[in-house]
Write a structure and sequence with these properties.
The protein contains 4 helices and no strands. With 96 residues, it is mostly helical.
Length: 96
Amino acid sequence: MLKKLKKNYFLLVSSFLIIYFFFNLLSGQRGLISYFDKKQHLDELKMKETKIINEIKDLDLKNSLLSDNLDLDYVETLIRERLLFGKENEKIYIIK
């Protein structure tokens, strides 16, 4: 038995190493499954980043409209939306 083990020592060690590296390739911290999870998480974060950047641009635009050079049309639309004001002889319909 010991002679057979010594004779097949290289085969045994090489098969053990192949199995070890195969499992680490698939399931380790840097494995294939972890790679796909991290890739999916990165895609989600990129989508959130673009959404937040668009919101920032929109808020910058609104802020610039309310800065020193006051845009009266924008202020009027804000008053109409938020406070439900209207002009004389103007009918306002609220649809629920």
